[in-house]
What we know:
By secondary structure, the protein is of the alpha+beta class. It has helices spanning 3-11, 16-44, and strands spanning 49-59, 62-70, 76-84, 90-99, 105-112, 119-128. Strand 3 (76-84) and strand 4 (90-99) form a beta hairpin. The radius of gyration is 28 Å and the shape is elongated. The model has no long low-confidence stretch (mean pLDDT 89).
Amino acid sequence: MADAEYLRERYGLDGRNNRLLYLLGAIAALVIGTWLVWQAISLTKPQAHASYLGADVHSDSEILIRYNVTSDKGNQVRCSVHAFNENLVEVGVKEVTTTIVTQPTTVEVMVVTTQGAAKGEVRDCEVVK
Length: 129
């Protein structure tokens, strides 16, 4: 018995299983292609980045939060600014839209809080048109 015949007989390999392999390969190629297109689109979108500088507590109901925003000049960037108490419970939030004039643009925003805040954080900055 030839080696090819022996292997087919022992493992049940024949030409019909190739269709399944081709189908799985086509599905994998489609998934990978879709992911590559999605990555290319997201890389071409304008980017915005923020870095937290600090905060000054003004009262039990207000905190001044400072941060830098970097993006292309002229872009409008919307950031979500959050205030937290000593137990890291969110006690205030504010969305701020800033036009980028310099690199970086420093932003100061007063956030009204429901209790005394101890620190702030900047999240989810995105370019808006």
